[in-house]
């Protein structure tokens, strides 16, 4: 706000002109280039002086001494907060979002669909972080026999997200017995989080009844094997390849860093969960986040949830030269629609 008070209307118009030109071309913007556009009605010399002042204020910078200027993170934020005109998603974009989400039958599919549609509509990387199932309450457990002595455990959380785990047992178990075990665990543990279930199982294992009650003993053994009691949030990433044609990724080392960014998914999830604290859409540019700093990228992020409670986050990740006026409302709208779609599955 302090910087904003120092700007005249002319300063703001020129800053807007530089940023809009840079977003369009990806090349540093010179005073001569702005003067040729004749939108501001100022000479190249006048524009050069104002651009130098904006540089001194930390809103623009010169990549090289002979080059024009590009926006800084502070310049982008001023543009986003006060200068640009946000555009609500078009009818076409809204229909595409609705069609994509309506074609998904469960929470896992909805999360994947949200990431895909974000990437497709933006030509950036779409990111969705699913809930931490370890802290989600349980809706049901089901064991399904597969070939031989393999079993599939399907865990459904109260927020609709599902975990699948395949494991082997010493000897095949008939379907009827698996139904009894599934019903017993669902009735005993529904409403508890997986972390609470782990604590409850430890207590049951120490109970002498578990040694003589066949159903209880089998339920404990299968629950320990089938329930992923340390389940962590899942990272859904779509569209990395869509950035490869952008000038910001013209060199191979930067392309390599982009793909390495998502190698450690647990680290990315932790960074995203810290970044999304609070309500509304958040924008991180360059050095403002550990996730965006190395590539000098931007992240547009918001939470989604059910019953007014945040359970995950979604957003866009890509070069800072983004179409913010369109993409910030797009992320916000998709977050609203994903939340509504998840509520409908419960």
Secondary-structure element order, N to C: HHHHEEHHHEEEEHHHHEHHEHEEH
Question: How many helix segments?
Answer: 15
Proportion of helical residues: 40-55%
| Main sheet attributes: strand count, strand direction, barrel closure | 5 strands, antiparallel
Strand order within the widest beta sheet: 7-3-10-9-8
The parts where pLDDT drops under 50 for at least 5 residues are none
Task: Please give the alpha-carbon distance between the first and last residues.
Answer: 43 Å
Number of DSSP-assigned strands: 10
Overall geometry comes to elongated
What would you note in describing this structure?
The chain has 346 residues and is of the alpha+beta class. Helices cover 49% and strands 18% of the residues. It is built from 15 helices and 10 strands. Strand 5 and strand 6 (162-168) form a beta hairpin. The two termini are 43 Å apart.
Provide key terms for this protein.
346 residues; alpha+beta; five-stranded antiparallel β-sheet; three-stranded antiparallel β-sheet; 15 helices; 18% strand; elongated
């Amino acid at each position: 706000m302090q910087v904003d008070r120092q700007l005249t209307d002319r300063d703001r118009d020129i800053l807007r002109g530089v940023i809009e030109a840079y977003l369009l071309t990806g090349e540093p913007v010179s005073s001569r280039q702005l003067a040729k556009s004749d939108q501001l009605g100022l000479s190249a010399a006048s524009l050069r002086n104002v651009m130098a002042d904006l540089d001194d204020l930390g809103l623009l910078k010169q990549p090289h001494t002979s080059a024009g200027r590009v926006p800084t993170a502070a310049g982008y934020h001023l543009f986003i907060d006060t200068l640009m005109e946000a555009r609500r998603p078009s009818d076409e974009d809204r229909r595409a979002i609705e069609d994509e989400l309506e074609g998904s039958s469960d929470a896992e599919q909805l999360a994947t669909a949200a990431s895909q549609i974000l990437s497709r509509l933006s030509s950036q990387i779409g990111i969705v972080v699913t809930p931490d199932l370890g802290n989600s309450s349980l809706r049901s457990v089901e064991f399904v026999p597969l070939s031989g002595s393999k079993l599939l455990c399907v865990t459904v959380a109260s927020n609709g997200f599902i975990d699948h785990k395949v494991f082997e047992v010493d000897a095949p178990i008939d379907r009827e017995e698996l139904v009894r075990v599934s019903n017993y665990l669902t009735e005993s543990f529904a409403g508890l989080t997986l972390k609470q279930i782990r604590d409850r199982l430890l207590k049951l294992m120490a109970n002498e009844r578990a040694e003589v009650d066949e159903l209880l003993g089998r339920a404990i053994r299968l629950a320990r094997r089938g329930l992923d009691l340390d389940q962590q949030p899942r990272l859904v990433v779509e569209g990395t390849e869509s950035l490869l044609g952008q000038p910001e990724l013209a060199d191979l080392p930067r392309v390599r860093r982009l793909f390495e960014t998502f190698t450690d998914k647990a680290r990315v999830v932790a960074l995203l969960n810290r970044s999304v604290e609070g309500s509304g859409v958040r924008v991180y540019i360059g050095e403002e986040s550990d996730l965006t700093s190395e590539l000098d990228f931007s992240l547009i992020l918001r939470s989604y949830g059910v019953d007014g409670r945040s359970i995950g986050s979604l957003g866009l990740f890509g070069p800072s030269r983004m179409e913010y006026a369109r993409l910030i409302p797009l992320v916000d709208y998709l977050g609203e629609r994903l939340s509504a779609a998840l509520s409908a599955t419960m």
